[in-house]
Every structure is written in C-alpha cells, then in structure tokens.
Amino acid sequence: MTQLIVTLASFGLIPLLIKKNFKLSHSILAVILSISIFSGLGFYRLGETALGVVLDQYSRDTILTVAMIGILGNLLKKYGILQRIVDSLLGLITSKKLIMMIIPSMIGIMAVPGGAVLSAPFINNIGEELDIIPARRAAINLIYRHIAMFMFPFVSVLMFVKAAIPVLNIYKVIAFGLPFVAGTVIIGYMLFMRGKGNGEKRERDVTFKKILELVVITSPIYMSVVINVITGLPFFLSMAGSVVIVYFLSDKKDFLYRAINSINYNTIILVIAILILKDIILQMEDMLELINNLLMRSQGDIRIMLIFTLVSFFFGYITGYPTSALAVTLPLLSMMELGNNALHIYTFFLLAVSFVGYFYSPLHLCQALTLTEMKVTTGELYKEYGPYFALQILLVFATTLTLMAIFA
Asked: How far apart are CA 82 and CA 214, in angstroms?
C-alpha cells in the first residue's frame, strides 16, 4: 500500500511543477526521483534501471526513432513540404468538410512541435465559411489531429508500447484499433460537421500530374513504413530513408545544419524518463501485487476494464501525456496470463483509455495551442466535448468487448 500511495503522491507533483513552468520531461524525472527515494528502491536501483534502459535494444530503438521523427517532422515543416501537402489536397478535394478531417490527420502523423498551429488556421478559416462555431472548430482540429496515434507504428506512443512489451506485434495492435479510429471519425463528423453544407464550391483540379505530385510529396510520411515492412529494419533506420527523400524534395540549402538542429532533445529526455519510469514501476513489487490481486479478483472483462480505465485516465489526465499512463498500466498487463489475441486487444484498450485521459487534460499542449489560435476558452471547448466524451468512452468499451468476443 505504501508504494501505491508514494506513486500517486509523486505523480501529483506533475501539475504542480507544470504550473511552476517546469517542462514535462523534468517533471517526470522529479516523479522518478520521488518514487525511488520514498518507495525504498534507492539511488543504486535507479542507476541500474537507467543503465538498463540504455542497454535494452527495444528502448534504444524507441529513443532513436523518436529522435528521427523529430528531425523528419521539423524538416518537413522548415522546407515547406507540409504546406505543399496541404495545398495539393486543397486542389484535389472539393469537400471542405473532408479537408477539415484530412489536414489535421496528415499533419498529426509527424511529431512536429507546434503542429496544432499548422492545422488550426485551415480549420478555423474553413469552419468560418461553413458557419461552424469556434469551439467546434477547435474540437475538430484536436479530434482529427490525433488519429495518427493509432495508425502509424512509428509514432512515439506505439514505439513505447513495443518497447514495454517486446512480444507484441505492433501492426496487430494497430489492426485491432481500426474500428475505434473509424468510429472516432464518424462520431466527430456527426456531432460537429453534419448538416453544415459545403460552403462555396471550388474548382477541382484532378489530373494524373496532380495525383502523382501528392504521392511524391507525401512519400516521406509513408515510405518509412514501406521500408520497415519490406526489410524488417528498425524504424529509426527506416526513417533515415524518409529523411533522404526530404533532401531531394527540398532546396538542399543548409540541409545537414537544419537536420542536426531539428533534434528535439526535450522530447528525447521525456521518452527516456518515461522508459525509466516504466522499469521503476516494474520493480515496485508490493504495488503491482496489490493491483494485480485486485484485477484477479475482478471477475469478467468489464470489471478489469473499469479498473484499467480509472488508472489510465487518472495518469493520462494529470500528466497530459498518454505514455505516462502506459508506463504504469503496461507492466500490470504484462503480469496477466492472457492469450496472444487477448494481450493485443487489451494493449489497444490501454492505449485508448490512456489517450482519453491525455486528450482532455488541461496540460495537453495541442489543446492549449488550438485554443489560442481559435480564441476559445477551455470551458467553451469542454462544453462542446460533453456528448463526444460519452460516445468516445462507449466506443472504447464496445470495440474492446466486441474484439474479445470475436478473437479472444
């Protein structure tokens, strides 16, 4: 019980430190120190754990992939390739509502600092044309911006999932999440865009040349997945191929300098901290046994899912980062005796409920940037979110229970 109290109290430091203008990475490091000191693990175990993260292959691959994502995303932004992708989409698609869904989704694929600001102006302008109120425009930008979290294996949260439970097939986790993604797209459309017309019609310029141009300029985004599937190379090496493509698509001016300066060290520190936190949690035997006993006494999928939901939502909400919640829940999942399909389905479930906590957190950076751009208050946004939140939670449970009934 002591370890559980220490963990909860330590995580409670995060919103306090964030208010004091600490970076999230530094706040997570403070949590690690607090847990190590007050749970009895000590500095020696902490040092061993940190060294173990550095030496572990899956952890190293995750750290290097996150670094490559940062480089690729910033290069796409700095050389105007993201803008070219948006311009190309605007020329090929006449449905403004479809564009409102696609643009945030495309930009959300890359971990681009300030990426919400890139998509928000387009959503704001189109939303105004369609007479969609600002709070709903903000909701649309945020909902569709985060779809990539469940779709692309090189996003940091899915890389962390793989590092935490190496036996997982990450493509299988993605496949089990597809019904949830589809439901999210539909619910977002029905609540925030249905019945708004399509504004003034535009001329569509659909030619083979334009389609080919879109295929070429989006190639840095999808080519790393293609390389990984064909060759089996680690993602950080596969993403090097995407960086090379950006070189040929750019004006090549100061490319190496820009690539080096695109490394987001704060994000790398954050990922390292969370990987260490995950391994620290694994060593807290008393807390894990306590929660595991609670899970084992919970007969049936619903009760287990409810416990996981409370834990995941709490840690995702107070940190504003989904991986923080997964650092706590994935070790618990790895202790459960589950079949292969059930393990993958529950992994999707933990990913989804952790995401929900993070998505609505006031510490969620994308939300803060979008609200600033749209000139909307947090209260106005949450008022719009009410029905969506309820349907989203229902969708997570319905998807998981259906998958368990069919595949587990």
From this structure: 11
The pair of three-digit structure tokens given for residue 404, joined into one six-digit string: 């368990």
pLDDT in tens, 215-267: 898 898 888 888 888 888 888 888 888 899 999 999 888 898 998 888 888 87
- pLDDT tens digits, one per residue of 170-191: 999 999 999 999 999 999 999 9
**CA angle 289–399–155, rounded 5-degree value:** 75
Q: Is the separation of the CB atoms in 242 and 221 below 8 Å?
A: yes
Alpha helix positions (H), 20-114: 24-38, 42-55, 57-78, 81-92, 96-108
Find the distance separating the first CA and the last CA of the chain, reported in whole Å: 33
The encoded tokens of residue 55 equal 């030496």
Contacts of 332 by beta carbon, 8 Å cutoff, 6+ apart: 288, 291, 292, 295, 308, 311
Q: Give the C-alpha separation, 54 to 48, whole Å.
A: 10
- DSSP secondary structure code for residue 149 in this structure: G
CB atoms within 10 A of CB 375: 10
Q: Give the predicted TM-score (pTM) of the model.
A: 0.82
pLDDT band at 350 (very low <50, low <70, confident <90, very high): very high
Q: What does the pLDDT read at residue 387?
A: 94
Structure confidence at residue 335 as a pLDDT band (50, 70, 90): confident
Give the amino acid at 210: K
| Rounded (5°) CA angle 151-258-229 | 30
CA distance 133 to 138: 9
> For residue 181, which of 136, 223, 144, 130 has the smallest C-alpha distance?
144
Spatial distance between the Cα atoms of 324 and 278, rounded to a whole number of angstroms: 8
Q: Would you state the structure tokens that stand for residue 119, as one six-digit string?
A: 């998509």
Amino acid at 50: A
